[in-house]
Amino acid sequence: MAKAVLLLEDGSFFEGESFGADGEKVGEVVFNTSMTGYQEILTDPSYNGQIVCMTYPLIGNYGVNDEDVESRKIFLSGFIAKECCQYPSNFRATKRLDEYLKENGIQAIHQIDTRALTKRLRIKGSQQGIISTVDFNKESLMEKLKKSPGIVGQDLVKNVTCTEPYIWEEGDWELGKGYKRIDAKERTDFLKVAALDFGIKSNILRMMVSRGLSVKVFPAFAKSDEILREEPDGIFLSNGPGDPEGVPYAIKTVEQLLGKKPIFGICLGLQILTLALGGKTYKLKFGHHGANHPVKELATGKVEITSQNHGFAADINTLKNVTLTHLNLNDETVEGFKCTDMPAFAVQYHPEASPGPHDSRYLFDKFKELILESKKDK
Predict the structure, then answer these.
(1) pTM of the entire predicted model
(2) What element of type H or E holds 31?
(3) What is the pLDDT of residue 60?
């Protein structure tokens, strides 16, 4: 394989081999602690602008297939692994991971010390980095890094959102049959949900459809009157990449939707809801990226193992008329809240997690229940 290098803005330099496309790419380097789900991570739009380092040492051992995708393409900037498996073994696999990355033009590096890289990111925090297969000069690469804008304040949502509204028609997956198609006749009695696409994952949409919710997805820049014109029963605020303060147009839209319909937000959706309510968000040192984060539901004391992917968090002390519902047990950051004066709630983690864990999927049932309760009150 061809040579590849990784340089961080603090000067840390790693030499390895390429297992992706030729070229170079800059992005915020973060680490993900998941053991499986690398294809879902690659296609999660929330990673736009980031280079992802997998902490699990062997990646690609079950290959890639056409079903385990979370969006229309790979949106992240680059990929890092200790070792990419060249001989995947899985009956669903259609190609190797390195083939998939090359086809999608994604730079990737392996055969480096990912433990040392992860320790560096934990100590110093996430930072800008550059992967290159064409330039191996530290000084030259550092100059390119210095010119990169970073992730704070940037509008990354515009890179991943849809351009036109559309109806989602896919439900649960079944072995040997794939994803169930839900046609218009089946959706006749479904509750209507308008989903704002800040970088929405497909499995979120599948979770809602499988619970009898008919979902129309709107671009992130859709106006509130356009959304309300559809007379939805509920509003969903999706996950997405980057800094919530970088999307003021989305914050304004949510401000105008508050109190009009029941609202459920996930990840970036929680952060945008926080800002729309007049609260504040802040950047985490190295973020939460992985499938093993313990979260406590405060009302019951139940601990959920969750999938997470975010670099910013909500400051609960800046919010009024809000109750904290979920807490991260690793660092006590906000993982969920609900409004006390209107039907709205949100979580910071990913209850739709695919391949898992599935501890938190009850939240989609809770959203449906909130919609039904709201309709009764009218």
Answers:
(1) 0.96
(2) strand 24-32
(3) 98
